[in-house]
Amino acid sequence: MAVKSLGARDHRIDILRGLALISIFINHVPGNVLEPMTHKNFGLSDSAETFVLLAGIAAAFAYFPRFAQGARLLSMAKVVKRAGTLYVAHLASIVVGLGIMSFGAVRLGAPDLLETINIAPLLAEPAKGLIGLATMTHQIGYHNILPMYVCLLLFLPVLMWLASRSLGLMLATSVVIYFATNVYGWNVPNYPTEGGWFFNPFAWQILFAIGFFVGARVLAGQTPVPYSRPLFWVAVAYLIGAGLYHRYNLYGLIPEVPLLPHNIQINEKPWVALGRLTHVLSLAYVVGHSPLMGWLRSVSTANPLALIGRHALVVFWVGTALSMTGQVVMRVFAPSVTAQVGLLAAGILIQVAIAWGLDWAVRAEKSHRTGMAAPAPADPVREVAPTTAPAL
Residue 383: what pLDDT? Predict the structure, then answer.
């Protein structure tokens, strides 16, 4: 398959990723006043599905051109290196999250915090719990998305190898794995507790692969998903119907189809049920073929959402720590509506400030190498950014 790198980074993906990260941060402080306003309340999928789909596109842009041009070992080495970075970030995030919750329990008089987000098994059997943390088979709540990303990145060389032969073969393989997972109940087992991963990588890889498919078609100079007026309005109708279905809690009203696997019909997150998958794909199709994408092209690359999306891993890591802090504040102090808005606004501003600082550091380093002063971020729409954006 003939592909080539993009001439400039598509910052529209960064803006959408930034929006997803902000939504994830708000949702990770459950019970706050803004949580009912995030898009998970208006359909069957949420920001996690959107983010994984976008991560697949970003992964194609970052790693596939070099792989397709013959530097396969180097591309795979970069993928493995990135997976290692995510693994270390995951362990560090868990340590910080446990520390924040423990501080709330010990110093702020809220011992019940240690009974939340799956911390209790670590206290009951510390040795086994440490094994589970190191192997990612024990995941505390709100810290379980990075292990799935590690698995997706380790699966990426397989996707690239298949895509270099046929994009259709790559996508078909992913679909077969997805359906087999739902039929046979495949999942990565937990340890030391029972059950499997909340973000089941065998199921979630379908979103990553679809995103990769879209990104690879862009790299090949093809239309990612051609526009069809009937399909567009079918997708719109589905989004409206799914929104009403969720709003009025009609789950269970539609009987299961006997020939389809049970897991694929229930709206549970580990399995990326068919309703959730159809919802996020319909949303992507409608947004992708709407005037919004043209408008986003004109938005400055210094837009706060674009900044956050460009530095997704660091912002996600910080946002997770801030959301744990928010949970402690909500539990211990029961803040007012105004205080909740202020708390969330402060968390978002911190994430924007960190993203801005990282962006400034990148520009300053480039300017130092060329012997020029670091450019100001003003009017950077014409700025050509690097294409190779890590998947997370």
Answer: 35
Residues 183-194 pLDDT 10s: 999 999 999 999
Local confidence band at 375 (pLDDT 50, 70, 90 cut-offs): low
If one counts the domains in the chain, the total is 1
Spatial separation of the C-alpha atoms in residues 315 and 328, rounded to whole Å = 20
Q: pLDDT-derived band of residue 372, with 50, 70 and 90 as boundaries?
A: low
Residue type, 248: Y
Residue 389 in any domain: the answer is no
Residue 168 has which token pair? Answer: 């259709």
Please report, as a single letter, which amino acid is at residue 333. F
In the structure encoding, which two tokens stand for residue 110, read together?
């809220």
Predicted confidence (pLDDT) per residue in 79-95, tens digit: 999 999 999 999 999 99
Distances (CA, A) of 2 to 63, 65, 241, 274: 14, 9, 40, 32
The separation between CA 18 and the C-alpha centre of its own chain, rounded to angstroms, equals 10
DSSP 60-77: HHHHHHHHHTT-HHHHHH
**Rounded alpha-carbon distances, angstroms, from residue 140 to 11, 219, 328:** 33, 38, 15
- 348, part of any domain: yes
In single-letter form, the type of residue at position 214 comes to V
Is there a domain that residue 288 lies in?
A: yes
3-state secondary structure of 28: coil
> What's the pLDDT score for residue 390?
54
What is the radius of gyration, based on Cα positions, of the chain? Answer: 21
For residue 93, what are the domain limits?
Answer: 11-382
What are the start-end ranges of the H helices in 199-303?
201-219, 229-247, 262-265, 274-288, 291-298
- Quickly state the pLDDT bin for 387 (edges 50, 70, 90): very low
Q: Which two tokens stand for residue 80?
A: 């493995």
Q: For the whole model, what pTM was predicted? A: 0.93
Answer for the pair 164, 1: CB distance below 8 angstroms, yes or no. Answer: yes
Q: Dihedral (C-alpha) 143, 318, 366, 86: value to the nearest 10 degrees?
A: -10
- Residue 6, pLDDT score: 76
Output 289-296 pairs: Cβ under 8 A, ≥24 positions apart. Answer: 289/227, 289/232, 293/12, 296/11, 296/12, 296/15, 296/16
How far apart CA 171 and CA 217 sit, in angstroms, is: 12
Q: Would 53 be classed as within a structural domain?
A: yes
The answer to whether residues 288 and 224 touch, using CB atoms and an 8 Å cutoff, is yes
